[in-house]
Amino acid sequence: MNWLLLFYLLAAHALCDFPLQGDFLAKGKSQLAPIPGVPWFWCLFWHAMIHAGAVALLTHNLWLGLAELVLHFIIDDMKCGGLFGFGADQSLHVLCKLLWWVLACL
Question: For 50-58, which contacts have Cβ atoms below 8 Å and span 24 or more sequence positions?
């Protein structure tokens, strides 16, 4: 197992979900309280794409990047919709990174 890859995936998640998300995407990605005049789904899509790019870059696997895009979009949409809170959101994202790591190491 490539432990350095796992470390990089988790560090990239922290980077992409906090400083690289920014206030605009964090507020704009919510269906319940979008920024007026800004389509919420574009903000959520591009936020998820930042994560997808990091996963694809680190794993050298487009399919894992695309899986991250889809799952990150769904997880954040569910969180923004009030289905669960911050802790569950972050736990699901970390589980995704663990899955990508296992699949990348096969």
Answer: 50/16, 50/20, 50/21, 51/12, 51/13, 51/16, 51/17, 54/9, 54/12, 54/13, 54/15, 54/16, 55/9, 55/12, 55/97, 55/100, 58/5, 58/8, 58/9, 58/12
pLDDT > 90? residue 28:
yes
User: Alpha-carbon distance 62 to 68, whole Å?
Assistant: 10
Residue 1: per-residue pLDDT: 80
Ranges of each domain in the chain: 3-105
How much is the pTM?
0.96
